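Thread: quick sanity check before group meeting

JM: Hey all, I'm pulling together slides for Thursday and realized we never actually wrote out the predicted structure for the chain we discussed last week. Dropping the sequence here so it's in one place. If anyone has concerns about the input, flag it before I start.
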Amino acid sequence: KLLPEYQPWLTGVLAGNHGTQDEVLMTCMAWHIDCCQWEEALPLAEYALHHKLVLPQQFKRTLATMIVEEVADNALKVNTAVPLQVLVDVEVMTRCEDMPDQVRAKLYKAIGFAKRAANQAPSALEWLSRALALDERVGVKKDIERLEREVKAAEQAAGAS
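JM (edit): ok, ran it. Output follows.
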């Protein structure tokens, strides 16, 4: 209910593009992510990363870590659908940012699962393998085995025809 009240402020900050530290913007960005409001969250995240803004103290993580972890956690929840494009956009905007391997592995896992759901098995296998390389305990080993069998069967079927 509160987020729409802040929209004029956020629009003005983005339009001004001054890069000044802004707790309202940072808090609203986190809230938009929590609410899965990607059209609002991603421009704020991109702006904050570009200007190297920092989160308010209560977050206790770096900006990139928070963005990646919260988006990935939302994507990996049972009943939460995060569009594949959102996951890819977050990966691109945070690619050069420093964060724990376990956090980045969660994002790669989420991308892999989204690619699998989009019937992109070879690409899903690649992302899940990247996740496993970063974190042995990310929970994708069985998924990788299944996808390897699927990809192999598809290649054999294509070769037979």
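AS: nice. The chain has eight helices and no strands. Residues 115 and 124 are 5 Å apart (CA to CA).
JM: adding both to the slides.
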